[in-house]
Amino acid sequence: MTYSNILVDYQEQIALVTIDRPKALNALNTLTLQELSQVVEDLANNSSVRVVILTGSGEKAFVAGADIAEMNMKTPLEARTFSQLGQKLMNQIESLPQPVIAAINGFALGGGLELAMACDIRLASEKARFGQPEVNLGIPAGFGGTQRLPRLVGSGRASEILLTAELFDAQEAFRMGLVNRVYPKEELQEQALAMARKIAAKAPVAIQLTKSAIYKGANMDLISGQDYEAEVFALAFHTEDRKAGFKAFLEKSQTEFQGR
Ligand code: HXC
């Protein structure tokens, strides 16, 4: 399948998804959101893909936000639908069985930062710049940013970012725990692939269950979260990979996990 604004490339068990509107700094218009949603749905059903990397095309941007020119034409009702379209996509990414690594190669602003926050792991180029500048346009964030940012960095820091609209660099994003690691620009893609390969070598069902426990648990109290953890822990004992993993450890050998 080919898309106008998304590129999908496969490297063994890794899918590299690139938002490809470099002339508009990869801004998310409706078509791009719809195409990305279709890509994510296809990946969810593709068990040969174990890890997804999401990045932006060109030198300058990961994603510089939702498309301002397109949003300018919207009525309040259309604006609500657009917000919900983006929110649905972010939730769909978060719910993917495979882990998603955001390789943030430049500006991650507004809807771009919201997209990165829906990923499991964020790696950044040292040139990346971050922010939620929506209030400069007279709007609040609308693709989940008012909800995910406080969960990731705490409500005090999130409030400062969302209320001042100030941009900040990759080191600052690293200090506040918004990105996991920062790399020189030319190393980012290779480092993202190296991390993806590391995760792809683990038992896919265990990875999926871990991801599920992290996100479900974040919306539960501690005891309910632990109940869910025990449930997924038991589920893993139905898998061949669990048996193979234990056997390899006990026999001091290696195994290749099959994903079942
Ligand atoms: C549409 C955009 C865009 C965007 C950049 N462009 N960001 N188009 N939507 N979000 C376009 C510019 O219009 C320009 O097109 C081209 O990309 C290059 O951008 P420049 O501004 O010329 O580049 P530069 O001077 O280097 O500045 C880079 C920048 C700036 C600092 C990132 O472009 C910028 O401030 N962009 C907007 C960032 C923003 O406010 N994001 C939040 C959007 S609101 P032309 O045709 O002139 O070359 C949002 C809401 C989400 O995300 C929730 C919705 C429900």
UniProtKB/TrEMBL annotation:
Keyword entries, A-Z: Isomerase, Lyase
Protein name: short-chain-enoyl-CoA hydratase
Gene Ontology biological process: fatty acid beta-oxidation
Keyword Isomerase: yes
A GO term, aspect molecular function: 3-hydroxyacyl-CoA dehydratase activity
Species: Desulfitobacterium hafniense (strain DSM 10664 / DCB-2)
E.C. designation(s): 4.2.1.150
Any Pfam family hit: ECH_1
Domain of life of the source: Bacteria
Biological pathway: Lipid metabolism; butanoate metabolism
